Amino acid sequence: MRGNVVDLAVAVVIGAAFTNIVNSVVKGIIGPLVGAVGTKNLDVYSSCLKDPCGIDAKGEPTGVNILWGSVLNATLTFLVTAAVVYFLMVLPMAKYLAKVEARRKAKEGVKETMEITELEVLKEIRDTLVAQRAAGGGNGRPPGSHDAF
Q1: H/E element holding 24?
Q2: CA quadruple 96, 101, 102, 108: dihedral positive or negative?
Q3: What was the pLDDT predicted at 116?
Q4: 7: helix, coil or strand?
Q5: Are the beta carbons of 43 and 1 closer than 8 angstroms?
Q6: How many Cβ atoms are within 10 Å of 76's Cβ, its own excluded?
Q7: How many other CB atoms are found less than 10 A from the CB of residue 14?
Q8: Would you give the DSSP letter of residue 139?
Q9: Alpha carbon distance 145, 117 (integer Å)
Q10: What are phi and psi of 56, to 5 degrees?
């Protein structure tokens, strides 16, 4: 259980540090690419449901303004994060675990072959001993052994 807690703590710390990298990629690369058809800052995209949208003289917002640019920015951040985690962590780990499993199965196959071979050798020895006993008269002694009496 302690190992799982340590693994989780390491994952949280790495995830927190990784968040800054992903946010920088989205703001510095993806945002401007999406903003090539509009503004570079995705947070300014919005739609007004109830006019007039804006800020009155008192500094309070008027109307109902939907900030769908913020949602788009968060969605892009999530997709980049998910892609990086999948391609840099999940996919290589799955390939590694598949190789480990294939090696384990190969070792088990060798063990089974060895066990079958040993079993076959032991059966041959048994059959040879039975044949020798039958040829020696069935007294339970190997052929050529004599009584000292």
Answers
A1: helix 2-25
A2: positive
A3: 72
A4: helix
A5: no
A6: 19
A7: 11
A8: S
A9: 31
A10: -80, -175
Distance (Å, rounded) from C-alpha 27 to C-alpha 72? 12
Q: What is the pLDDT of residues 44-54, one digit of tens each?
A: 788 888 778 87
Q: Give the total residue count for the chain.
A: 149
Among candidates 25, 2, 38, 134, which has minimal Cα distance to 84? 25
Q: How far apart are CA 22 and CA 73, in angstroms?
A: 11
Residue 145 Cα to chain centre, angstroms = 67
Dist. CA 10–CA 62, nearest whole Å: 45
Token pair, residue 143, equals: 């052929």
Q: Cβ neighbours of residue 21 under 8 Å, at least 6 residues apart?
A: none
Highest mean pLDDT among 38-52, 85-99, 135-149: 85-99
Q: What is the mean pLDDT of residues 128-143?
A: 75
Separation in Å, CA 121 to CA 86, 100, 126: 50, 31, 9
Residue 78 has pLDDT above 70, yes or no: yes
At 1, the amino acid letter reads M
